[in-house]
Design brief:
Layout lengths: L3 H23 L3 H24 L4 H16 L2 H7 L1 H8 L5 E3 L4 E3 L4 H8 L5 H28 L4 H19 L11 H9 L1 H9 L4 H19 L8 H22 L39 H11 L12 H4 L46 H10 L8 H9 L2 H10 L8 H12 L8 H6 L8 H10 L27 E2 L31 E2 L21 H9 L2 H4 L18 H11 L9
Antiparallel strand pairs: 1-2, 3-4
InterPro entries: Cyt_c-like_dom, Cyt_c-like_dom_sf, Cytochrome_c_Peroxidase/MauG, Di-haem_cyt_c_peroxidsae, Imelysin_sf
Organism: Flavobacterium reichenbachii
Main location: other
């Protein structure tokens, strides 16, 4: 007969064993959790496919689509960070992906394509086949994700870096509606995008007070979103400054506490960045094609002298500054400038401020870097008609230049032609101030913007859809948070002020004969827009008010032009007069101090 005391000892020992075993088995790694969440996403997509196949109601289809998106948002941080090329076909824009070098295009896939098929109306007769096809492709992509994450190592420093970029993605692409342009479900998805941050950091140190603080902060952010879930009325200024920026700061605090090394990578975003609005967050060297072109202050000093030197032109009467006036934020204030022969040039002179934070130059994006841009202008017979060989020869005879070149390029015996280009480009790379009133506000000075300007910011990043092309905080077309490519847009710009016909300038199509590129132009920065009028590639609009009115009407298609490949949404924005005024007021806050 078993002693009762021994029985209870044995019973509790067995219970303790299984309890400990259960606790051990419940402890998972970041990678394991990711694979679990990928499987949950797959299950939601399978359910989505079943509902569509059975021709359920539009409401059921849309509801399951939203559930699938929510499941995706939990794994988006990893897919976008580790496999960005594949991510483009899971939740990228519903626009063709183009390979310019090969003149090839690839049709889009993923959530945004599905969104267009099911909303605002779903017609099974015309859309079911395409929708099922998209779902099958999505399932195939999930399988690819699972296979990839099964074999890669996810170290702590990469987790931290990915989480920081994930917060930046919410700021730039999430709350702006970039990845949910029709349903505008971004606000309700924020919690799923952010909850991965403390969950992942908890795997590194579950006892961290910073992780506990992050959880509380994200709970408050979710509460704010739940109480303010109207996309058009959502206050992004408040949400960024009170929630998203503090979350970014906490991630950096945790990294320092745990002594986790920063990721070394070639990227415009510096790994030291605390928030997306740090003054020195962007590294211009992230946009150069090789290390020898890297920026230095000495190169910029040399480049400034070259920039103002009329000897770079054939007739010694025109410098870079002739068309890029520093007092006008390096524009000229003209619709289009005048050629050397006295005729009007075809295109407006764009600002050089923040031009270095792009992956392509000129309105038609025909050059990839500033070095080639400068040569293109200098040698253009209508602009400067200079000769790089002649310029190089003159410099070799100029002792002042010799000294500056020696200081800028100490490893070379004498000035080389490529260094002339690089020096001018380096000067242009020095023209990024990030000291506007907007920047001041985002760094904590709440008195920098008034209520009208804050309302304008919320319109810019919300209802007016400006920030889906002019991405915060560069406000140009360089796509965050990787910043590896710069976008063009087809907006249907008028030919002249009368606005009766479409511009005949074919833009990027001139150099890349792809129908999608007819009338496509680089998305320029809105920074310093208040002092860089007139606007558009042909200078057709004299004021920001005219620009906003054009977009409010739906661009070229909204005006009745035939622009089949227009990338700008052609539906009216339905902005009120007051909202248009607020939008212009906000854009004026993007002016650097030196131009105010």
């Amino acid at each position: 007969m078993i002693n009762l005391k021994h029985f209870f000892i044995l019973f509790f020992t067995v219970c303790l064993f299984f309890s400990c075993k259960e606790n051990q088995e419940s402890e998972t790694t970041v990678k394991q959790d990711l694979l679990i969440d990928l499987n949950k996403l797959n299950n939601e997509i399978i359910q989505f496919q079943e509902i569509v196949t059975k021709s359920k109601s539009q409401k059921e289809i849309v509801d399951q689509f939203k559930k699938s998106r929510l499941a995706y948002k939990k794994v988006e941080w990893a897919i976008e960070y580790f496999i960005p090329d594949a991510a483009r076909f899971m939740n990228g824009p519903a626009l063709d992906e183009m390979e310019m070098e090969e003149n090839k295009s690839f049709e889009p896939h993923g959530f945004q394509v599905m969104e267009e098929l099911i909303y605002p109306e779903y017609n099974a007769a015309s859309s079911k086949k395409d929708l099922v096809r998209e779902i099958k492709i999505f399932k195939s992509n999930i399988k690819q994700m699972q296979n990839t994450f099964e074999v890669i190592t996810i170290s702590d420093n990469y987790v931290l870096d990915a989480m920081q970029q994930n917060v930046f993605r919410v700021i730039t692409l999430g709350i702006t509606g970039f990845d949910s342009p029709i349903l505008q479900s971004s606000i309700t998805e924020i919690h799923q995008s952010l909850i991965c941050v403390p969950n992942a950091l908890e795997k590194i140190n579950a006892k961290s007070k910073t992780v506990a603080d992050l959880k509380k902060l994200i709970q408050k952010a979710q509460k704010y979103c739940n109480e303010n879930n109207d996309f058009n009325k959502f206050n992004r200024a408040v949400f960024i400054t009170q929630y998203l920026n503090p979350i970014s700061e906490k991630i950096k605090v945790f990294q320092k506490e745990e002594n986790i090394k920063m990721v070394k990578r070639s990227s415009p975003l510096k790994p030291t960045a605390i928030t997306l609005f740090d003054k020195d967050i962007f590294d211009v060297n992230g946009f150069v094609l090789s290390d020898q072109y890297n920026f230095t202050p000495d190169k910029a000093v040399l480049g400034e002298k070259l920039f103002y030197d009329t000897n770079l032109s054939k007739n010694n009467d025109r410098s870079c500054a002739t068309c890029h006036n520093p007092e006008k934020a390096f524009t000229d204030g003209l619709k289009t400038n005048v050629s050397l022969t006295g005729s009007n040039l075809a295109r407006n002179t764009p600002t050089l401020t923040y031009a270095s934070l792009q992956n392509a130059q000129f309105w038609d994006m025909r050059q990839l870097d500033l070095e080639k841009q400068s040569v293109d202008v200098i040698q253009n017979k209508d602009e400067m008609h200079g000769s790089m060989d002649d310029i190089h020869a003159k410099i070799l005879l100029n002792n002042d230049y010799i000294k500056l070149f020696k200081k800028a390029y100490p490893k070379t015996l004498k000035p080389e032609p490529w260094q002339i280009q690089n020096a001018i480009a380096s000067y242009v790379r020095s023209l990024n101030s990030f000291d506007s009133r907007f920047d001041d506000y985002m760094r904590g000075n709440k008195n920098s913007l008034n209520n009208q300007e804050i309302e304008g910011m919320n319109l810019f990043m919300g209802k007016a859809k400006c920030a889906t092309c002019h991405f915060t905080p560069l406000f140009n077309g360089t796509v965050p948070p990787n910043y590896s490519k710069s976008e063009h847009e087809v907006i249907g710009t008028p030919q002249d002020a009368a606005g009766k016909k479409l511009s005949t300038d074919q833009g990027r199509y001139i150099y890349n004969k792809m129908p999608q590129l007819i009338g496509a132009f680089k998305t320029p920065t809105v920074r310093n827009a208040a002092v860089t009028a007139p606007y558009m590639h042909n200078g057709v609009f004299k004021t920001l008010e005219e620009v906003v009115s054009f977009y409010n009407k739906g661009g070229g298609q909204g005006l009745g032009y035939e622009v089949e490949n227009q990338t700008l949404p052609f539906d009216k924005l339905n902005l009120t007069v007051k909202e248009e005024q607020n939008l212009v007021a906000f854009m004026k806050t993007l002016t650097d101090k030196k131009y105010q």
